[in-house]
Write a structure and sequence with these properties.
Elements: E1 3-8, H1 13-24, E2 29-36, H2 40-50, E3 54-57, H3 63-70, E4 76-79, H4 81-86, E5 95-98, H5 106-114, E6 118-121, H6 124-141, E7 145-147, H7 150-158, E8 167-174, H8 192-195, H9 205-213, H10 215-227, E9 235-239, E10 245-251, E11 256-260, H11 266-274, H12 305-316, H13 320-336, H14 345-355, H15 364-383
Parallel strand pairs: 1-2, 1-5, 2-3, 3-4, 5-6, 6-7, 8-9
Antiparallel strand pairs: 8-10, 10-11
Helix pairs in contact: 2-3, 5-6, 6-10, 6-13, 9-13, 10-12, 12-14, 13-14, 13-15, 14-15
Length: 386
């Protein structure tokens, strides 16, 4: 039988690539549910092509437009934040792809696990903010979490058949982004267009800026801690500009396993959908004759302080990763809007981490309150700089 998939965030970069996978492997997968925040027109186009059982548009003002377009095609239409979270409870869903960017994806991710749905996780912020709650709930509900980030998919693949062997360390590879090797002085007048010009990966705006600041790698460090039950000291970031090795696992005997491939997000998405099977693709294969050298280096955490801040948040624990994530989302948005300089992003995050009250063992309500407070504090800090 086809695996019926709910794509939360179908109009975003990951969502669109997930639909490419379904389009290519229609004999294996079908889109059961599609959701979007406010891109009603694209959601309608996707629904008309893939004929899902239901769609959700979070922006309630667009409900009439979507309903009018899809009602003649027997596609159920829902709207609003509550519908976005509850739609994952549908019994006809086999697997949920959590691809909503940022803290906004946490509620629906928790609902999916609560409903016992298998989860393909692209929303790393959910684990960054509330990894303790998510992993505990997944164990309770016997839900498998299949990582979609290329780095975590690589670790997951390297661990296949090795779950009984002690892991000494994992290496998360980073391309270095568009500014690898630059100094802080050289980045002083960086524009958003320059920061969005990633040399290897085609991603959405927010994650591309996070890649440029190395915050994306910091978020991945925290995500890896929860996905693979590791200590912070067991997670090391290495810069690998060629982006051929997607991450590595070092075992207690000193052996290192690496997962390699051409940079293409559709590959980890497809593997999360098809696990444990591997489906044939037309993706270009590695031509090793064209890669005479694969290089590695240490990240510059003085110039790109966001990575250091992420390690600090992970080591401190409690609600600090939540503070860091919320402040980063506000700072990145301000940078994209021209209200904040590239080099000012980590300063906003650091001040929020210092100003907001530490909570050692937060619950869901405390995480929500922390997220709200951090956004307000970050916005106020940015206003003083405008």
């Amino acid at each position: 039988m086809k695996r019926r998939i709910a794509i939360l965030g179908s109009t975003g970069s990951i969502g669109r690539q997930a639909l490419d996978v379904i389009r290519t492997h229609g004999e294996h997968f079908e889109a059961e549910v599609l959701t979007a925040n406010n891109n009603a027109q694209l959601l309608i186009e996707q629904a008309l092509e893939f004929s899902p059982n239901a769609v959700v548009i979070a922006d309630e003002s667009a409900y009439s437009m979507v309903k009018e377009a899809l009602e003649p095609h027997d596609i159920k239409v829902f709207a609003g934040e509550e519908a976005l979270a509850s739609i994952v409870e549908m019994e006809t869903i086999d697997l949920v792809l959590a691809a909503i960017v940022g803290f906004a994806g946490l509620k629906s991710t928790m609902h999916a696990i609560e409903s016992g749905k298998q989860l393909a996780l692209a929303n790393k912020e959910s684990l960054v903010v509330a990894g303790d709650l998510i992993t505990a709930l997944a164990r309770e509900k016997a839900v498998n979490i299949y990582p979609v980030d290329s780095e975590h998919s690589a670790i997951f693949q390297c661990l296949a058949g090795e779950f009984h062997n002690p892991v000494e360390k994992i290496y998360l590879t980073a391309s270095g982004g568009p500014f690898y090797g630059k100094t802080g002085l050289e980045l002083e007048n960086t524009t958003s267009a320059e920061a969005l010009n990633h040399p290897k990966w085609n991603m959405g705006n927010k994650i591309t800026i996070d890649s440029a600041t190395l915050m994306n790698k910091g978020l991945e460090v925290i995500e890896a801690r929860w996905l693979f039950n590791l200590k912070p000291s067991q997670i090391e970031v290495v810069v690998h500009p060629q982006s051929i090795i997607h991450s590595m696992v070092q075992f207690c005997d000193g052996s290192v396993k690496a997962q390699m491939g051409i940079p293409d997000m559709k590959l980890p998405i497809q593997y999360a959908f098809s696990y444990p099977a591997r489906l044939k693709t037309d993706t270009p294969r590695i031509d090793f004759g064209m890669h005479s050298g694969l290089t590695f280096g240490k990240p510059d955490t003085e110039t790109f302080r966001c990575l250091a801040l992420a390690y600090e948040a992970l080591n401190t624990g409690g609600n600090v990763p939540c503070i860091m994530n919320a402040a980063n989302e506000i700072a990145v948005s301000a940078f994209l809007d021209g209200q904040l300089g590239f080099n000012e992003i980590p300063g906003i995050i650091e001040q929020c981490m210092q100003k907001i009250t530490f909570i050692a063992k937060p619950g869901m309500n405390e995480y929500s309150d922390t997220d709200r407070e951090a956004r307000l504090v970050a916005a106020d800090l940015i206003k003083t700089k405008i």
